[in-house]
Amino acid sequence: MIVVAPDLSIPESELEFSFVRAGGPGGQHVNTTSTAAALVFDVAASPSLSPDQRERLLDRLASRLDSRGRLRIVARGTRSQADNRAEAVARLARILAQALAVDAPRRATKPGRAAKARRVATKKLRGRAKNLRKPPDPDG
């Protein structure tokens, strides 16, 4: 089981893994072994998700999902297939946890007295600088 949040755990049977060859360090070893891990999680059809969780994930991860509602994560940072698999699972848990997190409601605030004073002071300074650019007044 992969624990994503206190109220959500995903069984590993819902994850599809495939392993492909990865470039990078390793000499000729990388040309012969499939160490990069590609993980696919079907958000749209997962029985582990509640309807609310599914809707939230489909909305928040829309740009990362394919046309069938599946999330694909590829990890190829190390030469070890097991390490890359663990990295992909950790990334999946992190992505799902962030997408499921409920944002605190925004409370409207007003600028404080000091902020207003600074704003007025900079406006006055700017106005003085512009006045100095004017030609001298012939009448005055």
Based on the model shown, name its key terms.
elongated; 19% strand; two-stranded antiparallel sheet; 5 strands; 140 residues; alpha+beta; Double Stranded RNA Binding Domain; three-stranded antiparallel sheet
Care to describe what's here?
The chain is of the alpha+beta class. It has a single domain (2-100), classed as Double Stranded RNA Binding Domain, CATH 3.30.160.20. The protein has helices at residues 51-60, 81-100, 113-133, and strands spanning 2-5, 8-10, 15-20, 36-42, 70-75. The strands form 2 sheets. The chain has a 3-stranded antiparallel sheet with strand order 3-4-5. Strand 1 and strand 2 form a beta hairpin. It is 36% helix and 19% strand. The mean pLDDT is 83. It is built from 3 helices and 5 strands. The longest helix is centred in the C-terminal third of the chain and has 21 residues, at 113-133. It is elongated, with a radius of gyration of 28 Å.
From the N-terminal CA to the C-terminal CA, the straight-line distance is 84 Å
CATH class: Alpha Beta
Could you say how many structural domains there are in total? 1
Question: Which blocks of ≥5 consecutive residues have pLDDT under 50?
Answer: none
Family: Belongs to the prokaryotic/mitochondrial release factor family.
InterPro entries: Pep_chain_release_fac_I (IPR000352), Pep_chain_release_fac_I_sf (IPR045853)
Organism: Alkalidesulfovibrio alkalitolerans DSM 16529
Region (Disordered): 105-140
